[in-house]
Amino acid sequence: MAKLCFIHTLCPFIFLFFCNGSLGDYLIGVNYGTVADNLPPPTQVAAFIRDQTTINKIKIFDANPEIIRAFANTGVWVKITVPNGDILTVSKPAGAQSWVDENVVPYYPQTKIDRICVGNEVIATSDKNLIAHLVPAMKAIHEALLQVGINDIQVSTPHSLGIMSRSEPPSSGRFRRGYDRVIFAPMLEFHRETKSPFMICPYPYFGFNDKTLDYALFKPNAGVYDEVTGMNYTNMFDAQVDAVYSAMKLLDYDDVDIVVAETGWPSAGDPNQPGVSLENAVSYNVNLVRHVNSGVGTPLMPNRTFETYVFSLFNEDLKPSTSERNFGLFRPDFSPVYDVGVLRNTQTSPPAMAPEVDKKWCVPRTDASDAALQSNIDFVCSSGIDCQPIQDGGSCYEPNTVRAHAAYSMNAYYQANGRKDLDCDFINTGVVTMSDPSYEACTYAA
């Protein structure tokens, strides 16, 4: 269990961010979002996190192979996501097995994938067909993992607090009527059986008003009293988490662990947005982490700890509003937006493994189908390109997947034809990258 770390008075108080014990005990991770057109290549990001920060847990919102591959052998735990658009497909055993074979097997255990999120805030989509297939998809992914001999990757799904029909006071927490018994009871039963966590996204930022700003920011305040339990809440984060716990307890699943999949506060916003400032972002995140790492728990869950993921690693310039573009701890050049104590030293220097500007590779797009990629392999290997490395016994035969073989053959064609962007198009199924896709004995030409 994490313990509060007592720091010498000369040590900056925000060093509390990651001082709660051994590396494996860290409770705080970050969400690595990519809704931007100016982010550094995943290899640089992985090297930066590994070498220059104390972050050892990340969560991504897809199964981007460049990112997953970049974190191989870094010691960083990685949570990957089945996109909402794939839930119907993976709800069937064959679809789930194909997804696991393509997105987990080639990278595990070199990349420390420890959890798969099936969708993201699916209930909030109000898509009844998608929602109905969520639990079957979670079960199918879990079974697919077991089929390939993997029993230490958890399966879960993050929820916004829109799943609640009532949350104030915390003791009155209820899931939305109609979803409580039909969706959440079987989901929580799955979590209990597989010892996986119920994942939630509490954001006091979206719940505060003029009178409750200090309450949302963990600053001194009179608190909010729950008459049913006689408990006084001094921060909104605890109240939101306890409301979810109350809803779980109402269904008799209060023994299931809770993980905070997302939470954060923007450092900048539009002029008419109250409470948005650099000072408030620092206050929320620093106080959040101190609180989570203290081990005090919440009023309804004393001495209980919660694995928590701050949103987000970078400012993302393609988000739709100013505040949404400014949730990051870092700018795309790796300079800190504000110091929350995750840097290994106070001097920010360029990350290791910066790619050489004259080296480029061609790899499949993440949304390319296996059928299209197989056509690419057939075309390349019949055009005079040496495909021996992806034949049985070749240096790039393993992993024996269509996507892996396509990546090698598409790149070989791209390099042989002078590395022109057009030669990596493959009917809109290829993309040029500066991240070397080589692995183990399999070397990609550059």
TrEMBL record:
Record has Glycoprotein as a keyword: yes
GO BP terms in the entry: carbohydrate metabolic process; defense response
SUPFAM superfamilies: (Trans)glycosidases
EC number(s) from the headed UniProt entry: 3.2.1.39
Signal sequence extent: 1-24
Keywords: Disulfide bond, Glycoprotein, Glycosidase, GPI-anchor, Hydrolase, Lipoprotein, Membrane, Plant defense, Signal
Compartment(s) of residence: Cell membrane
PROSITE patterns linked: GLYCOSYL_HYDROL_F17
Chemical reaction(s) catalysed: Hydrolysis of (1->3)-beta-D-glucosidic linkages in (1->3)-beta-D-glucans
Membrane-topology annotation of the record: Lipid-anchor; GPI-anchor
Protein name, as recorded: glucan endo-1,3-beta-D-glucosidase
Organism: Nicotiana attenuata (Coyote tobacco)
